[in-house]
Amino acid sequence: MLVGTEQSLLDVVDGWLSTFETALEHFDRAAFDALFVEDSHWRDVLAFTWDVRTTSGAADIVAILSRRTTATKARNFEVDRNRTPPRLVTRTGKDVIEAIFRFDTACGPAEGVVRLVSGESPKAWTLLTALADIAGHEESIGDHRPSGEIHSRDFSGPNWLDRRQMSAAYEDRDPAVLIVGGGQAGLSIAARLTQLNVDTLIVDREERIGDNWRKRYHALTLHNQVHVNHLPYMPFPPNWPTYIPKDKIANWFEAYAESMELNFWTQTAFEGAKYDEERKRWNASLRLADGTLREMHPRHIVMAVGVSSIPNIPEIPVLKNFKGEVLHSGQYGDAADWSGKNVLVIGTGTSGHDIAQDLHSHGATVTMAQRSPTLIVGIEPSAQLPYALYGEGPPLEDNDLLTVSFPFPMLKAFHQQITEQTKIHDRKLLESLKKIGFQLDFGPDGAGWQFKYLERGGGYYFNVGCSDLLVDGKIGLIQFDDIRKFDADGLSTMGGETLPLDLVVLATGYKGQEYMVRELFGNDAADRVGRIWGFDPELQELRNM
Description:
- The protein is α/β, with parallel strands linked by helices.
- The chain has 3 domains: 6-131, Nuclear Transport Factor 2, Chain: A; 169-306, FAD/NAD(P)-binding domain (3-Layer(bba) Sandwich); 317-506, FAD/NAD(P)-binding domain (3-Layer(bba) Sandwich), CATH 3.50.50.60.
- It is 30% helix and 25% strand.
- It has helices at 6-26, 29-33, 58-72, 160-169, 184-195, 211-214, 246-259, 350-361, 396-404, 408-425, 427-435, 448-456, 466-471, 513-529, and strands at 36-45, 52-56, 75-79, 87-91, 94-104, 109-117, 123-131, 177-180, 200-203, 263-265, 269-276, 281-287, 293-296, 300-303, 325-328, 342-346, 365-370, 375-378, 460-463, 476-479, 483-487, 490-493, 498-500, 503-506, 535-536, 541-542.
- α10 crosses α12 (448-456).
- The two termini are 40 Å apart.
């Protein structure tokens, strides 16, 4: 049996780490066999493989370790006494000791998480190894904070603001990294690279930083809670609401870019790039705010445009007969413009529901057309169950590391369990939706909304009220297959009913990111990159993310 005092757990984990280090040093296969259970999983984030990959099965884990041990020079394994101490937890129904540890590699310091199960001697069920810093290229924070100019000020030269403006202008140089897209991902990546002293420029076609949120529909609020949306280095203030309004996060993005001294060009459209194999750099074309073209030559380009870049507009031949307005959800703006009007929203994912509820609240008569089964989850508690780890007590940084440590098979099992819990929490709502003919599903292999998002980028809705409006008949529902035809003023159904319409909103999602890569980088680059998003069965990771 596993024992539970803090010291005894420390001793157990330190003993496993010591044996693991010895096995690596001498590459002792028999020792490795005693360290891992047969169905173990190892997720490596750069530390051993210089890749992000998950390996399942003790034999395969040992085989990769055997090939990487010499180059990695992993050593000095120990429980990190500055992090959450080892503790007994239950993960996907299994009782384990969960511990955060640290070690050194040839490239720099690393960290990890191990989960040990009981037996004659504790064995690893899951293992995470992650490079934390690159030696000689540490982030400019904490002990590596820049000193400023208090001892060597040049009163006749440029001051901090002058240098910031010169840095952001790029009049005499090209950035090492060009990031396309200034949302949460673009800002986070740029902040990390800037702290590594990597010259980085963000470009975004919007007028202001944060407009990717600011310009969305009026009532939009984030559907997941504040603690899982922090940006690096600057957590949201503790007085922020649990669910962040769109304009609040938009303004935070603007303040964040300024505070983190990020080079950011707004009103700049990335028009494409070709790679120069001889010079090992990109020839990238940027359309500036004044309409002129600037060519840049970064060594690297990061596409941070999210999964919602190219609207997916389905071919609906009968819709061409409709003489009213047709908008994709990405073009939808002010619901007040449609007060007293008749609107059809095609699509029952998050955007479809939110837009329908927004229109209804502004006096429109709204009908939703369902094209395929949709996963419905109550906003609380069901939609927040995947984030339960963040309420267990460890600080944010430890929770982030623990979250990264879940390998794909364990993550899927975790979400399958959560999905069964949500069915219980949401039973009354789900039964009511079935009665009105709403078609439900529960994600791939019953793994819920998270895996539906990771595999297709949508197809679910966190109920913040629209499902109740459907059940109460305040918003209408038809199945798309029941639409017989559109005419100039509306539609008719297979059953002979007619529905007058002024507006059709296509809440039909977005094309996969590989379409964007092909459009901006050409066929050769797109073919080399391959599929994006969804899980790679070999690496057991998101494809090309």
